[in-house]
């Protein structure tokens, strides 16, 4: 298939039976299935996440995203109309001014108030409310009353921002732990780096005992992750920006592994975006901190990723385009067809694929 054809968004569509969308993770994270995709032999092997160490080498380096998901979903009622309201915290523009997405019947107006509630529509203690200041494109700027830090409010009253395809976004108490990687340490994401959800402390320890290095980077997954491509030509899509960071020490650790014959194994598309953003200026890894809006699509040439562990992604999404660009379009297309045939579990709480 030509590069020209790969600009057509409909090239990245596929049919997924709804029952294959995982609604909850497996009790043991390492029991998730793993479709191993060998680019050299153009072949598939059906394994499990617990088999991952057998596919790694002592010289390799595993690059993980240590972002931590904020309990960014908020519920409330509009003071003026009594209508239900749901919001998603995006970021603090200033300590007393926040950017949010919101969903409600009708249109919000400046100077409106939303009284925050529990997920079951019970008023919060203390009557915390949000004052709507101004609209910026699809976002609103709001001010909390009484004054409170976003981190404190979300920790006390926020809910896990599950994507809508998981139980229509309705969280269960267990999701507070399950929708978080075991190595999450840098708060700031509003969606999980889902390939990392498969790891347990025991699996990481087993990998380290092999001699494989584990190096963290940070990318705070934003709302744009779920933004669909509406343009018919993928080159016309405006990629969302996400903040990411890779320290000089971790750059050195990764490069030393590759110099000694090891592979850079990216855990998830978010780690890929950090590694490739950090390589964009010089063609090789350098320290990086700031926003990235890198959109990886054909005919992109990867500079700092040799192997990719990733979940199965939405049709016509930027993440699917990234994965097919990395693995080879026809091979990954066939791998998705194989995963559907073999009844793999898809999306955030689903199974995984290793492309090597």
3D architecture notes:
This protein has 2 domains: 245 residues, 3-Layer(aba) Sandwich (QueA-like), CATH 3.40.1780.10; 87 residues, QueA-like (Thrombin, subunit H), CATH 2.40.10.240. Helices cover 19% and strands 28% of the residues. The strands form 3 sheets. Strands 2-1-17-16-14-3-12-13-15 form a 9-stranded mixed beta sheet. Strands 5-6-7-10-9-8 form a 6-stranded antiparallel β-barrel. A two-stranded parallel sheet has the order 4-11. The longest helix has 13 residues. The mean pLDDT is 94.
Helix and strand topology:
Elements: E1 33-38, E2 43-48, E3 61-65, E4 67-69, E5 73-78, E6 84-94, E7 97-104, E8 113-117, E9 129-136, E10 139-145, H1 150-157, H2 175-178, E11 186-189, H3 201-209, E12 213-219, E13 242-246, H4 248-259, E14 264-267, H5 268-279, E15 288-292, E16 307-311, H6 318-327, H7 329-341, E17 352-355
Parallel strand pairs: 1-17, 3-12, 3-14, 4-11, 14-16
Antiparallel strand pairs: 1-2, 5-6, 5-8, 6-7, 7-10, 8-9, 9-10, 12-13, 13-15, 16-17
Helix pairs in contact: 6-7
């Amino acid at each position: 298939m030509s590069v020209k054809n790969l600009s057509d968004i409909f090239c990245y569509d596929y049919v997924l039976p709804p029952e294959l969308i995982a609604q909850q993770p497996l009790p043991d994270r390492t029991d998730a299935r793993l479709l191993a995709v060998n680019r050299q032999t153009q072949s598939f092997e059906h394994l499990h996440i617990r088999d991952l160490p057998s596919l790694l080498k002592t010289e390799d380096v595993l690059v993980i995203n240590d972002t931590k998901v904020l309990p960014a979903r908020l519920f409330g009622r509009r003071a003026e109309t009594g209508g239900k309201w749901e919001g998603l915290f995006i970021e603090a523009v200033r300590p007393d001014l926040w950017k949010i997405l919101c969903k409600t019947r009708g249109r919000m107006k400046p100077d409106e108030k939303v009284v925050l509630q529990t997920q079951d529509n019970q008023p919060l203690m203390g009557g915390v409310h949000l004052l709507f200041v101004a609209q910026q494109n699809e976002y609103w700027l709001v001010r909390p009353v009484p004054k409170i830090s976003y981190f404190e409010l979300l920790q006390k009253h926020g809910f896990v921002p599950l994507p809508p395809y998981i139980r229509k976004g309705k969280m269960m108490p267990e999701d507070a732990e399950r929708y978080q990687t075991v190595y999450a340490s840098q708060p700031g994401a509003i969606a999980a780096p889902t390939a990392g959800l498969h790891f347990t402390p025991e699996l990481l320890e087993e990998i380290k005992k092999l001699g494989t290095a584990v190096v963290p980077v940070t990318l705070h997954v934003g709302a744009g992750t779920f933004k669909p491509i509406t343009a018919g030509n993928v080159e016309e899509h405006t990629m969302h920006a996400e903040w990411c960071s890779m320290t000089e020490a971790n750059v050195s650790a990764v490069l030393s592994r590759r110099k000694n014959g090891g592979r850079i194994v990216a855990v998830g598309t978010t780690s890929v975006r950090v590694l490739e953003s950090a390589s964009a200026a010089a063609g090789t890894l350098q320290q990086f901190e700031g926003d990235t809006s890198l959109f990886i699509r054909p005919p992109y040439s990867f500079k700092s990723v040799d192997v990719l562990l990733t979940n199965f992604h939405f049709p016509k999404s930027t993440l699917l385009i990234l994965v097919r660009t990395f693995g080879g379009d026809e091979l990954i297309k066939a791998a998705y067809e194989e995963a559907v045939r073999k009844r793999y579990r898809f999306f955030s709480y689903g199974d995984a694929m290793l492309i090597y």
